[in-house]
Amino acid sequence: MGANGARGEAAAWLAGAERTLCLTLGALAEIETALGVTGFGDLAERMRRLSAADLLAVLAALLRGGGETDLAKGLAGAAVDPHAAAEAVAKAFAAALPDGER
């Protein structure tokens, strides 16, 4: 398995395995709903102050976007390091940006 950079996927080591995350349009809509925001400006501001529950919601959406539905479903009970989760979220958002915006 490996992340497809051309699709904007990112790879991260979570819950004992390499996982694929992707900021799809569906994941973006799920994240906006979970965080109660609309648009990138509001999302960027909200991402600066995520609670642990918010981080799990964002991570789960990105995992579903990358096809990692089993981990996304059981994320609350999975052994995921918060620092690794935050890094994975950052990697997924960076992978979705065009090269000039990173």
TrEMBL record:
Cross-referenced Pfam families, in alphabetical order?
Phage_TAC_11
Lineage, top-rank taxon, reads: Bacteria
For this entry, the protein name equals: Gene transfer agent family protein
Its source organism is Brevundimonas goettingensis
